[in-house]
Amino acid sequence: MVRRGTLLPLALLLAAAALTQMGGVSGQGRPVTESGAQTPPTPSSFTPKDSFLIDCGGTAPLNTSDGKSYKTDAQSNHLLSAKDAIRVADDKADVPSPLYATARVFKEEAVYSFPLAVPGWHFIRIYLFPLKGDGGGVDLATATFSVVTDDNVLLHSFTPEKDKAVMKEYLVNATENHLALKFQPLAGSAAFVNAIEVVNAPDELVADTALSVAPLAETSGLSREAYQVVYRLNVGGPAIGPANDTLGRRWDPDTPYVASPKDAVKDVSVPVGGIKFPDGTSRLVAPALVYASAAKMGDADVGSPSFNLTWKLDVDASFSYLVRLFFADIVSDATNDLYFDVYIDGRKAVSGLDLSTVAGGELAAAYYKDFVVNASSSEVAADKLTLQVGPMGQDTGRPDALLNGVEVLKVSNSVGSLDGEFGVDGRKADDGSGGRKAVAAVGFAMMFGAFAGLGAMVVKWYKRPQDWERRESFSSWLLPIHTGQSFTTGSKGGGYGSHKSGNTFSSTMGMGLGRFFSFAEIQAATQNFDDKAIIGVGGFGNVYVGEIDDGTKVAVKRGSAESEQGINEFNTEIQMLSKLRHRHLVSLIGYCDENQEMILVYEYMHNGVFRDHIYGKEGSLPALPWKQRLEICIGAARGLHYLHTGTAQGIIHRDVKTTNILLDDNFVAKVSDFGLSKDGPGMNQLHVSTAVKGSFGYLDPEYFRCQQLTDKSDVYSFGVVLLEALCARPPIDPQLPREQVSLAEWGMQWKRKGLIEKIMDPRLAGTVNPESLSKFAETAEKCLAEFGSDRISMGDVLWNLEYALQLQDANPPDNKDGGGDQDAAGSEGRASSAVLPPGGVNAVPDTSTTAAGELFQQLADMQGR
Ligand SMILES: *[C@@H]1O[C@H](CO)[C@@H](O)[C@H](O)[C@H]1NC(C)=O
Ligand SMILES: *[C@@H]1O[C@H](CO)[C@@H](O)[C@H](O)[C@H]1NC(C)=O
Ligand SMILES: *[C@@H]1O[C@H](CO)[C@@H](O)[C@H](O)[C@H]1NC(C)=O
Ligand SMILES: *[C@@H]1O[C@H](CO)[C@@H](O)[C@H](O)[C@H]1NC(C)=O
Ligand SMILES: *[C@@H]1O[C@H](CO)[C@@H](O)[C@H](O)[C@H]1NC(C)=O
């Protein structure tokens, strides 16, 4: 029950959000563990309590090939009050189902009254075909009539199309214990119906909230609306008949609606048994068959195409639509490798959808999301609803995108009509009739917070370590390259153990541990460790830039002989690192362990460290625009989220800072130096107890006090990174007045005053959307909470930042003049409050290694003031 994305009822959402924000337990990702373990599996079949199937005009019970049994008129006479008893039949009619071969005709209003066993959602299906024959003197092809319930207009002045059988399907929330279905012929005409179904549906089928696309906001009140099903598509797969859907629905193939070129779309499918339903995901909303097929990008496997898959659906522009998209990643080989954007009506509805994050960390797991599209929006106004999925730009993950299923439901208008602008009582819809009566925007963060957070927790539970005890001894050999204010304390290791030479690795090579380099190769690559090739200096030794093979640039980390930890841990490290593959983690290419050397070879990151691009290097680099800073933060958050949740044991980075976020040639952010990383806490522990390691200024105060490490320590450090990206100053600057020394404290003071823009990097002035800024600052605040349990998870951080980016994209300020590296004339506040010289100061020597003793002293000083 716990995570079902936007489809959680509002109350649950609120409760879940509260839990994420405040809950002591959520900090450890355990509540889902406990409640999740007791949740019975969601049912995969549904037996309706109300089921009225009537073959109108039929004289014998009818069983269709769909497996449904229809009653005759005689059997359902008690439901009908009508003056007429005209029936027509035509055995030779060319109809898709025998249901259409008979009909009931009414020349005056007729009412079917269904007593209901349960209130709530009910399907109403009306089958219509204008049979030839004597309809009481009326030609059914010219019959004109309306069909209404007590509250909703389903059909208004309907006239059938000649020789065309149609089934109209509605979904209404019945609040009474009966449901009336009225057939109202136009004066002098007649009404008819070939078959009727009234069947109740599970509550979860329509949630109260969804994401409105334009403007982007959460809307609620959906459970009070009535719906007409206009499209229900099994994308990339065949039609699914009522017999294969426990709710008796029909799913059509999507092919008639594909607007992309033919070879741009590729249909894929997997055996239906391979589809997983993460805890709490309903199996009823769509059958597994829908998730088991998808359309993906046709050329995605070759080259790097960038295009959208596009579907165009005809709609009536005077209504709003509830669009439900179904996804299951049945195309990826690994999790966290596929990110794509979803557009509805030309607007970005989801940015960088990462199915492995939202669908319980598994491939082929069912996930769906609801959107509301406003009737008066531009594209719909042209009577076309456009759905698009396309790869996220920016070289993020495998360029591909997919869609498994679509439902499009027309939403009743302000007077409860689904056809025409008049309500049951004759009231006319107010202008912009598509408008809905009770759409209230509620906190967006709440939704994202709750579902991303809970999702992440579920992931964590699934990924909990099975072998924690064995792994507990894992600790790192590698120290950060840009060691900055890093320091390390800890027990002295026993120096080098007995050295194992290359052939030890020949056995491990086969396990995918990356490439083995000979010492000679490394020497050649780095010009024999030329000082000029040094790009970083760390406690363990130097980092060199080098070239291997064909001129591929690499970063080479060489452990110095004084390094304390032994070869076993070096081996563990390699095994560990080589398992971590992610777009937003710097990847290990190989290693060298010859001649008692401990050398690791990494991919080279052309644009260096993030810090240099926001401040530092005396501002010699152009200032990054806000959007790019956001994208870098999002990339880093993805990398960290993967560390926390994407691996079996869950890894805590322990040294998150702007110098450990590296940028490649395209400014894609990659997290480096998981050297201090530690496996996350196991099942039996809430935290990892360990000597304090990390970087001054980024250190989680709780970790420092209790020496207990959780993934929330990384979240705290990341909060500091966010403030650095915003304010362009170091996390600790001892030269500043006391209250400004610590960026975390100072930033939060301004945030609490609601004046965060006063301390923003002046070079950003005029380029930042205020809502984006406020979302960003709020995210930083939630990261920097005093207690780990109050902090949001990395998954939440990610969603919040993505939302900040969407806000920026949706409405970038017009005034671009203050941007770039231009003069900061436009900056208000910050200059006048004279809090910081522009460009920032980098007063803390970047190469100093702070001993723990000094650190305690510094912290004591800071706390004392
Ligand atoms: C229709 O199916 C029901 C059970 O589903 C069965 O009891 C009934 O005999 C069938 N009727 C006909 C006419 O086949
Ligand atoms: C039906 O609507 C009522 C309010 O009109 C609401 O309280 C109830 O929760 C809805 N039922 C479902 C299943 O959404
Ligand atoms: C639907 O179910 C029938 C049997 O009930 C089966 O033969 C058919 O293959 C199923 N359709 C699909 C698309 O799986
Ligand atoms: C995909 O569609 C959206 C909205 O229509 C558009 O903004 C975007 O540029 C498209 N992407 C590509 C690669 O064409
Ligand atoms: C639809 O959009 C129009 C203008 O953009 C707005 O006035 C109206 O409130 C919106 N309706 C809904 C239901 O969101």
Short summary of the structure?
With 865 residues, this protein is an alpha+beta fold. Helix content is 22%, strand content 23%. It comes from Paspalum notatum var. saurae.
Report the CATH superfamily of the domain at 607-679 and 689-818.
Transferase(Phosphotransferase) domain 1
Listed once per kind, the bound small molecules are: 2-acetamido-2-deoxy-beta-D-glucopyranose
The count of helical stretches stands at: 19
| Distance between the first and last residues' Cα | 48 Å
- The third-level CATH topology of the domain at 607-679 and 689-818 is Transferase(Phosphotransferase), domain 1
CATH architecture of the domain at 607-679 and 689-818: Orthogonal Bundle
Instruction: Please give the CATH class of the domain at 607-679 and 689-818.
Output: Mainly Alpha
Return the structural class.
alpha+beta
Give the helix proportion (percent range). Answer: 10-25%
Kindly describe this structure.
This is Protein kinase domain-containing protein. Keywords: ATP-binding, Glycoprotein, Kinase, Membrane, Nucleotide-binding, Serine/threonine-protein kinase, Signal, Transferase, Transmembrane, Transmembrane helix. It holds the Pfam family PK_Tyr_Ser-Thr. The chain has about 850 residues and is an alpha+beta fold. Among the domains are: about 50-200, Jelly Rolls (Sandwich); about 225-410, Galactose-binding lectin (Jelly Rolls, Sandwich); about 605-680 and about 690-820, Transferase(Phosphotransferase) domain 1 (Transferase(Phosphotransferase), domain 1, Orthogonal Bundle). Helix content is about 20%, strand content about 25%. The protein is built from 19 helices and 43 strands. The strands form eleven sheets. Strands 1, 8, 11, 14, 15, 16, 17, 18, 22, 25, 28 and 29 form a twelve-stranded mixed beta sheet that branches. The chain has a six-stranded mixed beta sheet with strand order 31-35-36-34-33-32, sandwiched between helices. A five-stranded antiparallel beta sheet has the order 4-7-12-9-10, with no helix packed on it. α6 runs antiparallel to α17 (about 795-810) and α12 (about 625-645) runs antiparallel to α17 (about 795-810). The longest helix is centred in the last third of the chain and has 20 residues, at about 625-645. The chain is elongated and about 100 Å long. The two termini are about 50 Å apart. The model is unreliable at about 1-40, about 430-510, about 680-690 and about 815-865 (pLDDT under 50). It binds 2-acetamido-2-deoxy-beta-D-glucopyranose (NAG) (5 copies). One 2-acetamido-2-deoxy-beta-D-glucopyranose binds near residues 173 and 223.
